């Protein structure tokens, strides 16, 4: 096959066309709001490479939104600085980027492209805002420079030629005004008049002191006083003014003192730049960055800012936080569709907002169907409870949606306490955990945080999330505990017991993590690993000393593994790969996992038993199963629970206990089941159990679980 020349025809057909069309649409959208002398087609040519950057970023592997950031900056550089230019651009990207540049992928791929497109829009907006900020700084410096130039011009003009001064004054694009030291405005240029609405009498002849504005920075008028008294030569502030029609003009204002030829203060010179639009854009960007676009509620960012502020305030401030998660929202969303789900969330947001209106209360949406309400004050313990009541009450009335009434319930976790002890992340995590407790208790209720429950949940949660990586990193290992013939004390085999060498918590026993692995399903790969490893180890023992019959290996199976469709295939595979005789493997299944088991569940075990694998009923005697049932189970070994062994330790031994064990053993033997006892800690127990007819035993009396070579040496000792 001829190799394709690099770069040639690598572009899919039509992408170039579609990019072109995308750039056309984009240019049409932004052209009306750009303040440049470029024509629309010129802008289009300018946007085409930017469109290509966005398209490339949409498909790049790995995904990186940085090019969109640069596109945002490029817009500013191209003088598309109007607030609308950004929102129109975002609109075009949102509607057309995936459509024109997405290719014809499958719906799963499209879903991903849409998610990427949203992230590109965020990056673009961020790039735009940053570039605008930087440009503003540069412009401010330019103004400061021109202030110096203008001042020297003005000073010269006052002493020299009026005509030259006029030229500078009128030609300037920034607003310039001159006032005397009493604050009477003597001269203003055209640019300044236009900023104030175009009528000269709105400015000239007025007094500077009339320009007090409620949003003036506190130090503005102090600086002004110092200037007119000759104590400083200039100052620069951001200052709002009322225009004649009552609207507000925001400016970057530089005021300088003009001195006469003897250095005495004479006039003041004001230079101002109109920043109203930029300010509006910044406010809008800030609003968009801090509010949820669906419900209009404050979003996570703003909520964290508020919470952070509350938590870092001193003087006995307390906070109360209610973390709300709707019960069963996913089901509504899945059955009625996302549009209906969205409307439901909007309604919930409205209701929450209407019940959290007391001073110091705030509601925010954290995302999805999760909301928070915050309250501050001194008696937040009671306030938070009340707030939670109001929240649940707000949800009590069904919500009408498309003609049907939906009952929406929620679970609330409350965290309350003094400011200054915990950070926002910690508080929110505690609220989240508490909310889950409310959910686990059935939902439609609130629970209060409890530090002990938190700590337990955090460790449990931490261990659960660390499990998968732990398996990949090889943090698990197996200890082996010998199984011994009660008759002659010789080693008959070993049980594999898994441990986790956790990087922070040290060695953890299976009781700490098997239930978690069971819960998350990780038990399947973990159990497979244990089986593989233990079988490999048994094969190794048996290869190195074949005399005295094969050593048997016992491996525990959890209920989830028992239900897994690949159990038989995986086990066969492991045995075949290692070359271990199936008769040397014993799988231990707890009695409780088999209570009430139907034929479907027993079938894989039956298949394994037919292949020669032993099945042991572990912890026997704790599950209260019907002894008559034993007959239909494919088991060949009973492992008597440790509690029986413990009863052999008492003095005198309860004759009833003896009778029970004796009965079980004789029933087992009549069913041709071998009996193993667990937890043998003393010689007396061993002797008693031997007399009762038990076949094999396991326990600290013989050996604690340990490294595989320990079994090796025990077997060698037997052989001697
Ligand atoms: P189990 O199958 O009943 O295992 C016997 C437990 O008794 C082991 O605890 C063992 O260390 C302990 N033991 C042995 N001899 C004595 C003794 O003389 N006195 C006392 N007091 N205890 C003794 P371990 O290792 O903590 O295992 C606990 C449970 O974890 C096991 O109970 C088993 O159900 C489960 N497990 C262990 N490894 C695995 C595995 O690989 N997969 C699965 N699914 N479960 C496992
Ligand atoms: Ca076991
Ligand atoms: Ca057991």
Automatic annotation (TrEMBL):
Recorded coiled-coil stretches: none
Pfam family, one: PAS_4
CDD domains on file: EAL, GGDEF, PAS
Domain PAS: 161-231
Entries under SMART domains matching the protein: EAL, GGDEF, PAC, PAS
PROSITE patterns cross-referenced by the UniProt entry: EAL, GGDEF, PAC, PAS
Domain GGDEF, chain residue ranges per copy: 317-451
Span of domain EAL: 460-719
Domain PAC: 235-287
InterPro entries: Biofilm_reg_signaling, EAL_dom, EAL_sf, GGDEF_dom, Nucleotide_cyclase, PAC, PAS, PAS-assoc_C
Gene3D superfamilies: 3.30.70.270, EAL domain, PAS domain
NCBIfam families cross-referenced by the UniProt entry: GGDEF, sensory_box
Official protein name in the record: GGDEF domain-containing protein
Organism ancestry: Bacteria, Bacillati, Actinomycetota, Actinomycetes, Kitasatosporales
């Amino acid at each position: 096959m001829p190799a394709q020349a690099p770069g040639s025809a690598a572009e899919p057909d039509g992408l170039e066309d579609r990019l072109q069309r995308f750039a056309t649409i984009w240019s049409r959208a932004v052209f009306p709001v750009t303040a440049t002398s470029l024509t629309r087609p010129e802008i289009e040519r300018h946007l085409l490479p930017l469109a290509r950057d966005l398209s490339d970023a949409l498909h790049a592997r790995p995904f990186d939104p940085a090019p969109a950031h640069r596109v945002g900056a490029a817009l500013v550089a191209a003088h598309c600085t109007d607030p609308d230019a950004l929102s129109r651009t975002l609109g075009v990207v949102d509607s057309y980027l995936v459509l024109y540049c997405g290719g014809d992928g499958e719906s799963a791929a499209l879903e991903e492209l849409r998610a990427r497109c949203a992230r590109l829009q965020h990056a673009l907006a961020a790039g735009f805002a940053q570039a605008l900020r930087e440009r503003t700084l540069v412009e401010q410096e330019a103004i400061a420079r021109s202030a110096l130039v203008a001042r020297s011009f003005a000073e010269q003009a006052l002493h020299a030629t009026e005509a030259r001064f006029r030229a500078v004054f009128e030609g300037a694009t920034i607003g310039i005004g001159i006032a005397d030291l009493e604050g009477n405005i003597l001269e203003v240029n055209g640019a300044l008049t236009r900023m104030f609405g175009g009528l000269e009498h709105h400015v000239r002849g007025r007094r500077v002191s009339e320009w007090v504005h409620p949003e003036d920075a506190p130090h503005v008028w102090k600086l002004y006083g110092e200037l007119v008294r000759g104590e400083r030569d200039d100052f620069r502030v951001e200052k709002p003014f009322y225009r004649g029609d009552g609207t507000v003009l925001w400016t970057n204002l530089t005021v300088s003192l003009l001195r006469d030829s003897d250095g005495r203060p004479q006039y003041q010179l004001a230079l101002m730049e109109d920043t109203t639009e930029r300010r509006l854009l910044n406010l809008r960007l800030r609003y968009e960055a801090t509010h949820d676009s669906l419900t209009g509620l404050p979003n996570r960012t703003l909520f964290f800012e508020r919470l952070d502020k509350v938590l870092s305030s001193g003087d006995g401030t307390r906070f109360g936080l209610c973390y709300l998660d709707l019960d069963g929202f996913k089901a509504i969303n899945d059955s009625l569709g996302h549009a209906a789900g969205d409307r439901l969330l909007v309604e919930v947001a409205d209701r929450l907002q209407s019940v959290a209106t007391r001073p110091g209360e705030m509601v925010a949406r954290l995302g999805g169907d999760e909301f928070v309400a915050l309250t501050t004050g001194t008696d937040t313990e009671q306030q938070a409870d009340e707030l939670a009541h109001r929240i649940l009450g707000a949800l009590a009335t069904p919500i009408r949606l498309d003609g049907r009434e939906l009952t929406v319930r929620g679970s609330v976790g409350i965290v309350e306490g003094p400011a200054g002890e915990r950070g926002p992340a910690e508080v929110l995590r505690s609220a989240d955990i508490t909310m889950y407790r409310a959910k686990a208790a059935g939902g439609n209720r609130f629970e209060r945080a409890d530090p002990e429950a938190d700590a337990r949940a955090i460790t449990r949660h931490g261990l659960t999330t660390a499990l998968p990586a732990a398996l990949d990193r090889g943090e698990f290992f197996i200890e082996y505990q010998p199984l011994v013939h009660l008759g002659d004390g010789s080693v008959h085999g070993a049980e594999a017991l898994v441990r986790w060498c956790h990087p922070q918590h040290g060695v953890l026993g299976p009781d700490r993590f098997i239930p978690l692995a069971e819960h998350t399903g990780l038990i399947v790969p973990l159990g497979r690993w244990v089986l593989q490893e233990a079988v490999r180890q048994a094969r190794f023992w048996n290869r190195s000393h074949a005399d005295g019959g094969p050593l048997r290996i016992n491996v525990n199976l959890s209920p989830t593994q028992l239900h897994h469709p690949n159990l038989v295939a995986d086990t066969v595979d492991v045995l075949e790969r290692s070359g271990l005789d199936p008769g040397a493997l014993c799988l231990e299944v707890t009695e409780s996992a088999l209570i009430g088991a139907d034929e479907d569940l027993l079938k894989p075990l039956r298949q394994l038993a037919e292949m020669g694998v032993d099945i042991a009923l572990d912890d026997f005697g704790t599950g209260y199963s019907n002894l008559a049932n034993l007959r239909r189970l494919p088991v060949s070994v009973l492992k008597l629970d440790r509690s029986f062994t413990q009863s052999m330790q008492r003095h005198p031994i309860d004759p009833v206990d003896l009778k029970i064990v004796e009965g079980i053993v004789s029933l087992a033997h009549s069913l041709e089941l071998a009996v193993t006892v667990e937890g043998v800690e003393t010689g007396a127990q061993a002797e008693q159990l031997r007399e009762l007819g038990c076949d094999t035993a396991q326990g600290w009396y013989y050996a604690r679980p340990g490294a595989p070579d320990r079994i090796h040496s025990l077997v060698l000792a037997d052989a001697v």
